[in-house]
Specification:
Rossmann fold, about 10% strand
Length: about 230
């Protein structure tokens, strides 16, 4: 195939809201490893799960942080699977997400996957809870379990896509879509196009100030979404 455009979606705050299930899974995983719930919390937005876990271990005085992190991926995944019904009941696919994903899936010359701080096994759980999993190629995504630093993830996803499709993908043909300045920073650091969506904790002004190439209030105008992503 000719060189495609690679669109990489963030999950939480961009495509879905988990209805508190994500935080509850962290709490449950922490308690199962440490034997008590965390008493101190750390920032979540835009960060990778294992980066968050490392900070949680530090601020809560975990005695063996290396062992904690070694177990955390498994425990977090198990906890989220247990909470999937809660996520369906209390969470939602964000307005326009399904339509944007479906439209892009039929766009010639475009492949789409994920760039998310979630560990890899939790990405299909979250998207599958709202029927969004059939639109993306999970195998070429980049996840918090690939690297704890988000800015390292675009190159990982691009390399996976190049191997699978047997073509080179220029950095400027990669588009990251996310709801935080950290998403924008990861895109810009890797030479990718950054599209901010103000459906998370940051408004349009904050995303514009962070350097996004395009900013959307939400995903409800599918034509505007495609123009921002592919423009």
């Amino acid at each position: 195939m000719t060189a495609p455009t690679l669109v990489l979606w963030d999950i939480d705050g961009t495509l879905i809201e988990s209805g508190g299930a994500g935080l509850a899974a962290f709490n449950r995983a922490f308690e199962r490893i440490v034997g008590r719930p965390p008493t101190e919390w750390v920032p979540f937005a835009g960060r990778t799960d294992l980066e968050i876990a490392a900070d949680l271990a530090r601020v809560n005085g975990v005695e063996d942080p290396a062992e904690f992190l070694e177990r955390f991926d498994d425990e977090l995944h198990g906890a989220l699977v247990e909470l999937v019904d809660t996520m369906r009941e209390r969470g939602r696919a964000l307005p326009g997400a399904r339509e944007a994903l479906e439209r892009l899936a039929h766009e010639a010359g475009v492949i789409q996957s994920l760039l998310t701080g979630n560990v890899e096994r939790n990405a299909p759980v979250k998207l599958g809870a709202f029927g969004l999993d059939r639109f993306v190629d999970f195998g070429i995504g980049a996840y918090g379990s690939d690297h704890h630093v988000r800015a390292e993830l675009p190159a990982i996803a691009r390399a996976k896509a190049e191997r699978k499709h047997g073509v080179g993908i220029a950095r400027e043909r990669v588009v990251l879509v996310g709801d935080t300045p950290l998403d924008v920073a990861a895109a810009r650091a890797s030479g990718a196009r950054a599209v901010g969506v103000a459906t998370g904790p940051y408004d349009e002004d904050a995303l514009e100030r962070s350097g996004a190439h395009a900013v959307l209030a939400d995903l409800t105008d599918t034509d505007a979404v495609l123009a921002a992503l592919l423009g």
